[in-house]
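**Protein of interest**
===
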Amino acid sequence: MALLPLLLEETFPLPRRDYLSIFAPEEDSLRLRNAINQLVNLEKDTSITVDKDQFQANIDVQQFTPEEITVKLEDENSVTVEGKHEEKQDEHGYISRHFVRKYVLPEDCDVKKLQSKLSSDGVLSISAPKRRKITKQKYREIPIVRTGPLRKLGAGKHNKNNV
């Protein structure tokens, strides 16, 4: 029976239902909807790229001043970005903001060269280049390069033992 409305919907359009209100009272469904919207917006505000040369994360932090943002390296492979400001007044009243983002760096990143840059339009970029892989060779022939004389033998004598 539950399938009947779905089958008939193409022929007889039904009004759209708020499926969140089925599972929660109206005020809770509003909170759930806001939380879902915030999660969707967080994904839009962040991008991460990892390629053969580097790790890079870009975060929209335009709501924060540079003094309100910290970037920390923890455990030699984890970067934590935090932004926090106390209550401020805006056009709708008062608001406070706080976020924490953690990124696990790939194992081959050079954490000694980790950088963070803040653009004038409020995008924080965190990047770390990858270390070059050193391949071990089991066998390699070393060519002999001929040069001129390096030392002179004793006073006009040719000594076979001195090479």
